[in-house]
Amino acid sequence: MRTRFLAALGLSLLAGGASLVQAQTPAPMPPEKPPIGEEKMPAKQLFSQTKLPSIGKAVAIGYYPRGCLQGGVELPVNGPNWQVMRLSRNRNWGHPELVHFLEKFAPLAARATGWKGILVGDMAQPRGGPLPFGHLSHQIGLDVDIWFMPEPDHELSRKEREDISAINVVAADKLTVNPKIWTPQHAAFIKTAAQQPNVERVLVNAAIKKELCRIEGTQHFSWMSKVRPWYGHDDHIHVRLKCPADSPNCRKQPPVPAGDGCATKDLAFWFKDSVLHPKPSPPPKVPPKPLTLADLPPACKNVIDAPANPKAVQR
Ligand SMILES: [Zn+2]
User: Fold this and answer.
1) In 256-310, which ranges are continuous DSSP H helix?
2) Which residues lie at CB < 5 A from ion ligand 1?
């Protein structure tokens, strides 16, 4: 016991002594080199390690699931009608049009639903790019997830923003919305998002799309065609903006098919047993190669190599 104590004391003295020496004669630090070159590194690693946006004018580069963001701007974590969730992910960045969209949409959604405001989930990383988990898209600063949950009446703590989960509004059988949870406010929330002119698509679970079709009946509103069924999306909507005019290298998505997408044939795919209850696929023999910088538009190398915007704040 005593020997161990002395040994520990000796070690701590040594450690203390070493730091004292270092403080007196600072040794030049060799430049830090990543263990592998940035070209070979998975792009998701490169982009998620970069904590601040690049300098330069804001530009969305590439395609929603394969690109990056120059000159990203931050959505403040608290606004008059919104709070940002999961701050630890550092994904509250976007093209300025996305930030403006949220600043405008939050009070409109509050008015349409009677909610205090909205809870904002993932947008993009400071320089966009592939994400290490959670999404294939969200890469060019034009995608945002907004939760099916009214903003609470108090400012959430950092911990609450990590711990609270969005509310699933779809029934367990995935065929309909959950009547105990779904309200007309949810419909108003989605409709308000889809009505905004620079919104390209609003992705929701197929059971939600089906319910919207039921509510709106045969009134073929143009906003309805933007509401598209997609996997998951039972506890949030995913809003995607059109390519901004200032971003010539932003690749447009093919336009949504004409019509409101409410016909049985349009929705049938989503309610097939194989889609509702997919069989687990065997793990691939060769694991898929993660995207590298070479797989992204060439301009994304400049984005990752550019100095950080000194005015950007990291939280
Ligand atoms: Zn999303």
Assistant:
1) 264-268, 273-276, 299-305
2) 145, 238
- CA nearest to 140, candidates 148, 131, 155, 129: 129
Q: HSE on the CB side for 210, CA within 13 Å?
A: 21
Backbone angles phi, psi at 79, to 5 degrees: -135, 175
Distance 238 CA to ligand 1 centre (A): 5
Q: Please give the distance, rounded to the nearest whole angstrom, from the Cα atom of residue 136 to the centre of ligand 1.
A: 9
Parallel, antiparallel or unpaired: strands 59-63 and 66-70: antiparallel
**Alpha carbon of 211 to ligand 1 centroid (Å):** 21
Please give the distance, rounded to the nearest whole angstrom, from the Cα atom of residue 27 to the centre of ligand 1. Answer: 47
Taking the centre of ligand 1 as the mean of its atom positions, its distance from the CA of residue 121, in whole angstroms, is 8
The pLDDT tens digits along the chain (315 residues) read 444 444 444 333 333 333 333 445 555 555 555 556 787 889 999 999 999 999 999 999 999 999 999 999 999 999 999 999 999 999 999 999 999 999 999 999 999 999 999 999 999 999 999 999 888 899 999 999 999 999 999 999 999 999 999 999 999 999 999 999 999 999 999 999 999 999 999 999 999 999 999 998 777 678 999 999 999 999 999 999 999 999 999 999 998 888 899 988 889 999 999 999 888 888 888 888 889 999 999 999 999 999 999 888 766
Q: How close is the Cα of 6 to the center of ligand 1, in Å?
A: 56
* Ligand 1 centroid distance, CA of 37 (Å): 30
Beta pairing partners, 295: none
Alpha helix locations (H) across the chain? 2-24, 43-49, 96-113, 158-163, 184-194, 206-216, 222-226, 264-268, 273-276, 299-305
Q: What is the pTM (predicted TM-score) of this model?
A: 0.86
